[in-house]
């Protein structure tokens, strides 16, 4: 029974991806006539047109820059904040931590309109740097929460020994504490990479010019007001999915190991 349910869930999960792949090789008429049928002729022209139209190379560079920098600053700032909240027993630290936890239940859609209005009036939109700053703001609460629980399990005697040997607080954090946070860091980094790379809503609000668009935003070229080029759009979606799927298959063992180690801690 369990195996049957797993097989059914697997088919339901994979079916949309297979449908996208099949329709990416069809002509527009074939897609409109029967999107569930196999292509009559395997044609790669859709991929060539999608690659050119969406300016794939530029979009990939934008996505890589935004993803790597965003994930890096989230990991660094959230780990340092969690370390500060755990090791310095100030009363205000509990307030800060509870505020971070409470912020995780606030959906982005509820602050979306004032977000765009305020930052739009300040002329702070349409910048990769501002988008990275926004990702830091929206991603730091969950990352800090995960680091907070892990750091509490690290014996403070290790840090005291390093301080006695002449290490500064920064050296203690980066040379003693941070290496012990590898399982949690791997989990946070991988989950945030998948989030930032695939995100459409936030970049669509911040990035306007074509030269700063990410890969998910570039697929919007194929959907007009009155028509949609579905066959080329499917090819574009395949091109967008390929990098993140390759990344996931390479890192899936680390994802599982990181989640398990974090749960044990």
Strand content: under 5%
CATH architecture of the domain at 67-214 and 245-264: Orthogonal Bundle
Classified by CATH, the class of the domain at 67-214 and 245-264 is Mainly Alpha
User: Quick one: overall form?
Assistant: elongated
Low-confidence stretches: none
Say which CATH homologous superfamily of the domain at 67-214 and 245-264 is assigned: MetI-like
Helix-strand pattern: HHHHHHHHHHHHH
Biggest sheet features = none
- Give me the Rg, rounded: 23 Å
Secondary structure: number of strands? 0
CATH fold node name of the domain at 67-214 and 245-264: MetI-like fold
Q: What is the overall pLDDT average?
A: 83
**Measured distance between first and last alpha carbons:** 33 Å
Annotation field: number of helices: 13
Structural class: mainly alpha
Helix content: over 70%
Structure description:
InterPro entries: MetI-like, MetI-like_sf. The chain crosses the membrane at residues 7-25, 64-86, 95-120, 132-151, 172-197, 230-250. The protein has a domain at 67-214 and 245-264: MetI-like fold, CATH 1.10.3720.10. Helix content is 77%, strand content 0%. The chain contains 13 helices and no strands. Helix 5 (91-103) packs across helix 7. The relative contact order is 0.15. The model has no long low-confidence stretch (mean pLDDT 83).
């Amino acid at each position: 029974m369990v195996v049957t349910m797993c097989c059914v869930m697997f088919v339901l999960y994979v079916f949309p991806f297979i449908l996208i792949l099949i329709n990416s090789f069809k002509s527009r008429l074939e897609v409109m006539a029967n999107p569930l049928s196999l292509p009559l002729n395997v044609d790669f022209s859709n991929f060539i047109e999608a690659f050119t139209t969406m300016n794939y190379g530029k979009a990939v560079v934008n996505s890589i820059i935004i993803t790597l920098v965003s994930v890096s600053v989230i990991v660094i700032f959230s780990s340092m904040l969690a370390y500060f909240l755990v090791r310095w027993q100030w009363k205000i630290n509990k307030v800060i931590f509870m505020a971070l936890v409470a912020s995780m239940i606030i959906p982005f859609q509820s602050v979306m309109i004032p977000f765009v209005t305020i930052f739009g009036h300040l002329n702070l939109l349409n910048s990769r740097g501002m988008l990275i700053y926004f990702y830091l703001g929206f991603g730091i609460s969950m990352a800090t929460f995960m680091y907070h629980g892990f750091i509490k399990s690290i014996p403070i005697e290790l840090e005291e020994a390093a301080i006695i040997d002449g290490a500064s607080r920064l050296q203690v954090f980066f040379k003693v504490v941070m290496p012990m946070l590898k399982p949690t860091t791997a989990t946070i980094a991988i989950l945030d990479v998948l989030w930032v790379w695939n995100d459409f809503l936030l970049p669509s609000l911040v990035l306007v010019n074509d030269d700063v668009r990410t890969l998910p935003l570039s697929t919007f070229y194929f959907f007009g007001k009155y028509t949609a080029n579905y066959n080329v759009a499917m090819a574009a979606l395949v091109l967008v999915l390929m990098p993140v799927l390759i990344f996931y298959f390479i890192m899936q063992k680390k994802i599982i190991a990181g989640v398990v180690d974090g749960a044990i801690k």
